[in-house]
Amino acid sequence: MKPTQSLLQVFQSRKMAALLFIGFSSGLPLFLTSKTLQAWMTLEKVDLGAIGLFSLVGLPYSLKFIWSPFLDRFVPPFLGRRRGWLVVTQVALLLAIAAMSIQNPAQSLQLLAVNALLIAFLSASQDIAADAYRTDVLEPLEMGAGAAVFVLGYRIALLVTAWLAFRLADQMPWPVVYLLMSALMIVGIVSAIFAPEPETRDRPPESLADAVIKPFIEFFQRHGQIRAFFMLLFIVLYKFGDALVNNMSTPFLIQTGFTQSELGDIQGGMGLIATIVGTLCGGSLLSKIGINRSLWVFGALQAVSNLAYLVLAQAGKSYQVLVITINIENFCAGLGTTAFIAFLMSLCNQRFSATQYALLSSLMAVSRDILVAPAGAIAQGTGWPMFFLISVLAALPGLLLLPVFAPWNSRPVTDMPRSGLDDDDDGSGRL
């Protein structure tokens, strides 16, 4: 694929179509064990304390790196290492989601919890296979477009399992809704079967021990210990400012006086569209300027976009300012996410891509789930305007690390060979 291709041409391939539908399949189970499940339990008069504890069902998403070496080491007897595992997990998910239709939250929470935990485990496993497939199948210049298309499919699935599921639940019982949602997994199964197989340049790890240990050793040998350390620190910090705002945006908007219906229409509808447009634009631009410069430009825009919330905090309840704020913040977040996913893919060796991507994405979750914990106390102590200003400053440490491993004037990552994908790679990570 040549850099001079048009922005639209970069998306036009069988490979991109497969990534769109695999992304949809990857996003489908998420809300079925969280938001929609909470709504079902609430209608069944389940205790709020028990509903709150169901958030622990999502633990497999944070721990998926533990069993990711298994998917690197072993190859199913059909469709190859990546597509084979995709189909295995997707078929299992179809059955597990369908099994929710026979559950009764009012009578047996234990069985419901086990079923939901099984869905989360299989969904996290599907994510391991999907992330590895995306990393292996994309050429360097396709990474931006591939990341954007995958995120687009993922976001569409979130819309289906949120908006459409709730609409259906007004017309039919929740068990029937889950049965219908399970049937949508067929989209991913068919896509994985007909998707192009990644070209395999390296054999899988020879033992499970190699699959567990060698991804760490290879990563630090390939990048150097100091450079690799700063890369990992950057992964934790790059979206920290964005995570602070996302964590507190709903309480802020409700305290400002906006209704839940207004938030649903603007955040869930218009905000989703803005994110999709941002990811698609990010993918197109990334193919032109490369990953390095995209991290600089999109990261800066992602940080500055938080100032839109500062303006809204000063303006008070203004529907027009809310619309502008949500669109700016979600569009820039989409840009940043595309560059970030492409960057993570560029760091992986094809031989260990399932394990290495799972580990890197788990580090990304540190800022989203752990570092943001004091956000409420900070907002309460400083007030909303100062909190949003702090969120902008919180994005700076990640950007200041970029000169160490992604200097602006260096050859873009998208123009560089990836370990495991090039003929000169002997499988050890040394190019």
Tell me what the structure shows.
With about 425 residues, the chain is mostly helical. The protein has two domains: about 200 residues, MFS general substrate transporter like domains (Growth Hormone, Chain: A, Up-down Bundle); about 230 residues, MFS general substrate transporter like domains (Growth Hormone, Chain: A, Up-down Bundle), CATH 1.20.1250.20. The protein starts with 13 loop residues before the first helix and ends in a 26-residue tail after the last helix. The N terminus and C terminus are likely disordered.
Task: Name a few traits of the molecule.
2 domains, Growth Hormone, Chain: A, 72% helix, 431 residues
Radius of gyration: 21 Å
- The secondary-structure element order is HHHHHHHHHHHHHHHHHHHHH
**What summary fits the major beta sheet?**
none
Number of distinct helices: 21
Q: How does the helix and strand content classify structurally?
A: mainly alpha
Strand-residue proportion: under 5%
From the 3D coordinates, which CATH architecture of the largest domain would you assign?
Answer: Up-down Bundle
The number of domains is 2
Query: Looking at the structure, what is the overall shape?
Result: globular
CATH superfamily of the largest domain: MFS general substrate transporter like domains
Helical proportion? over 70%
At CATH level 3, the topology of the largest domain is Growth Hormone, Chain: A
Distance linking N and C termini? 22 Å
